[in-house]
Structure formats: C-alpha cells, structure tokens
C-alpha cells in the first residue's frame, strides 16, 4: 500500500505589486492552520517517509509549521506544476517510499486529488467544489508509485 498526502499551503497574504508571487508569506491565520494540521498529523499517527515541498516561501513556511520529523525536499518544479506534471513526478517516486506528503499549490493539488479519487464519490464531489488553503487530502493506493490510478481510500480534511 502507498499513501499520498496532498496539502495546499496554508492561507497567505495577498499578492503585492512589484513583489514576486513566490515570496508571498503565510498570514497569522495561515500559521495557525499549519500548526493545527501538524498537531492533527501527530495525533493521527501520520508520519510520511518523504516530504516534497514547493520552493515558494508560503509552502516552506507551511512545512515548517507542521513540525514534522522529516526534512522536506524542496522542489522548484512543484511551484508551477500542473496536475499532470505532479502525477509524472509521483511516478518517479522511490518504490521503497511507503508514504509521501506533497506541499504545493492550486490548481495542481486540487486537480491531482480529483483525478486520483474514485469517480462519483462524495470526496470527488467535495474536491470539485472546494480546496481552500490548508486543505489536506490522504489517498491510499494498492498500486506502485509508477502506476497510480484510483485511490482505494480517500480522506479530505478542510481547514
């Protein structure tokens, strides 16, 4: 079994003229969301083998606030990827990795989650409508990373 956790970064400040989008930071609400999710992960026993994190400031801050025991691998490609690009990256994940947390951005996180959820389920319906900052999706597969199709189990945690 493989477990994929997709996390959209927590709430950020608005874009500012002349400031690169990648430099946007978490708001106080965003820090609270990420710390609360980190606590939820620890109490739920969620301990990813690997963490992939976008190189954008807001994603790195989200990872930091989770306070995980795993050093995130920063992926500049995660900053601007789309769902298909993310799925290609996942196909190359080390086969020995049992669980992976990806901290990234929309629309890639939402679209990838929607693509991997079993069609017609309540989870897919929810994912088609809502994926606010700090949304956390856990997908469990009975296939290898190189052949991900549909999750056999899905959990969605909205902030």
Overview of this protein structure:
The chain is α/β, with parallel strands linked by helices and about 160 residues long. It has 6 helices and 6 strands. Strands 3-2-4-1-5-6 form a 6-stranded mixed sheet, sandwiched between helices. The longest helix has 17 residues, at about 30-45. The chain is globular. The protein starts with a strand and ends with a strand.
H-E string: EHEHEHHEHHEE
Assembly state of the chains shown: single chain
Spatial ordering of strands, largest sheet = 3-2-4-1-5-6
Apparent shape? globular
Keywords:
159 residues; alpha/beta; six-stranded mixed sheet; 6 helices; 20% strand
Question: How would you summarize the topology of this molecule?
Answer:
Blueprint: E1 2-8, H1 28-44, E2 50-54, H2 57-66, E3 73-75, H3 76-80, H4 83-91, E4 99-104, H5 108-116, H6 122-129, E5 136-141, E6 153-157
Parallel strand pairs: 1-4, 2-3, 2-4
Antiparallel strand pairs: 1-5, 5-6
Concise structural overview:
By secondary structure, the protein is an alpha/beta fold. The protein has helices at residues 28-44, 57-66, 76-80, 83-91, 108-116, 122-129, and strands at residues 2-8, 50-54, 73-75, 99-104, 136-141, 153-157. It is globular and about 45 Å long.
